[in-house]
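Write out the 3D structure for:
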Amino acid sequence: MQNNELEIIQINISGEDKPGLTTALTDILAHHDAFILDIGQSNIHRSLTLGILFLTTSERSGQIMKELLFKASEMNINIRFTPITEEEYSRWVSGQGKNRYIITLIGRKLTAGHIARVTQAIYDEGLNIDDISRLSGRMPLDENERVPNTSIEFSVRGYLEDKSRIQNRLMELTEEGEVDISFQKDGIFRRSRRLICFDMDSTLIRTEVIDELADRAGVGAEVRDITERAMRGEIDFRESFTERVALLKGLDVNVMEDIAINLPITEGLDRMMTILKRVGYKTAILSGGFTYFGNYLRSRFGFDYVYANELEVENGKLTGRYTGEIVDGKRKAELLRLLCQFENIDIQQSVAVGDGANDLQMLSTAGLGIAFHAKPKVRATARQSISTVGLDGILYFLGLKDSWVDKA
């Protein structure tokens, strides 16, 4: 071997994390003009794992490894050297061009069983795990002090002949245990979401407002039956909407204020909206419900846009009719596209969240569609779903870490 031949060496360091450790090791490489090809580090409970792939010459490699060994001994850490051939390195580089995906797990509590089944699915599909990171806060031992959500994110890469196969398998896992799993292609659009649109009834609030109005009008049972059939997709939304509104004829308009003030807000809404505004998202309510209640939520939580249905009022009473165009499933998808145009963003930068059959077009149109505590038909059709935690669980599907957003 000639002294000027190039060598590729991988070093793996493990041990107790100490201030200045990475600096001490890279200083040695810098002193000998080594070229760092790749570097990665992770820390778990004061334990460090550091990997460095560097290029040097055979003339210098021996001295570099000698000095690194001395420094490792001095700092009481373990170090391992692995020579890498040019062929191995070239195969590794070409592998970086494979498609990358993000798999996100969310639950009240994630178990080893959840992780084992997900990683088995990853392995069976021939994907490779590049990174595993925790998105939620650290877990205290006292259950009374624990955060309401737990989330872990896997970054994986590889070629998939049929992406729906792993999506369906992960969806099956969500049905088996108390865990929600998102599977997304990693790329520029996932990292640049800008608009998020929400259904209102049974999504932002834990009720259907038309049912609340119906109770006040004494027709609660009739309206609820129609509502359930519509949400399950058994009857056309426009037909059901017209029937339900007609049953409200004669109701005093003043009851709407009392209903609005007492709306049952969905868990995590306040925190989610605070963080979405903090990181620059535009937010919209696209609802088959009513403008009055959408505007109440806008004033309380700071939504940027509200599009819903307008009830007709005469002499302080509901007429049993509506004004303007019905906001049904088709209209929600149209409004999503229009908002993207107005905000000058690509449709792939949008997110939609809803629970009912009339949300499906909106969910499929958005770059990321999330079925939230949805009806079975919607959950089975949607690409992503959340059923175990509150609305702030959406933040994890967006890739936001608690450590970033709660202390910003």
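The chain has three domains: 6-94, 97-186, 195-405.
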